[in-house]
């Protein structure tokens, strides 16, 4: 094992430059010395916890400006900095007060790559399979939850990549580390294997239930799909990106889900549609017919799916007049284009649609987009994101 200092030299220098930049308006009376590195002839020693130079400016800054500096720093930089010493870990854990914009996401897309992210997929700390690296490659080590973990800096994005023989165990370790450091819960999980166990593990370790679950991979098992649709403890968002097994059939009522997106919806039937209670319902390619969508639209007009704001389905070929069969007397053609945003942030341009009104006065626009997509957008639109 080699010394961890090469990894942290660059980190110390970047942070010091950042301090110098904001010094003029945050801490004008404090002199921040240049970054200090150990002598090059220092013998390589692996301490239990990597230590900072005593001249590193972060530990000399008074607490009031220190809090502001830490609050300005990105989560990935704070995670990297937290490994430098027990003191920097403690300072970040106790002094960071700024609320997080976005949500902590635990992802596991395949057996070789897993990561934690905040907000718009900005990686904070990732996991890679050890087999991806040659034994001759230089490694730096950090102390994580009591064990030495080899790490390197991502060459393009700058966050830390940890290496594990078992990526699932690694994902759990970095989840524990990051959530403890920032005192937050996981709100989103992306899984591609062992989905049930991973979701149950996350839910069992925190007080607040998951808000969002995404299932990736090629094909999910029947057991996993039934669990996601019926038993998974999250009501906000479910996204199923994987294929269902051949002849999969879900014959039970779907539970209440605010946002439901199914990329490969060949298994979705009209009976499934009639039991959905969602705000946004997005279906990828399905075997639904124009007549099925007509039945669903009548269901909504009679008070079914009362929370619906946006429904979108891809079918073989859309005939808008079959979708509106028997309802044209209550429909008004709107030739102008209108821009619509759903509560989850989905945006649609509605062109050449038909406005149709429910008995309680609520209006929806029904239109086709291309030859395969039908959209039902309920007014008034709302841009409030419920996640």
UniProtKB/TrEMBL annotation:
Q: Name one Pfam family in it.
A: F-box
Q: Which PROSITE patterns match?
A: FBOX
Q: Where is the F-box domain?
A: 55-104
Ranges that cross the membrane: none
- UniProt-listed InterPro entries: F-box_dom (IPR001810), F-box_Sdz-33 (IPR012885)
Which PANTHER family does this chain map to? Answer: F-BOX ASSOCIATED DOMAIN-CONTAINING PROTEIN-RELATED, F-BOX-CONTAINING HYPOTHETICAL PROTEIN C.ELEGANS
What is the protein name stated in its UniProt record? F-box domain-containing protein
The scientific name of the source species is Caenorhabditis remanei (Caenorhabditis vulgaris)
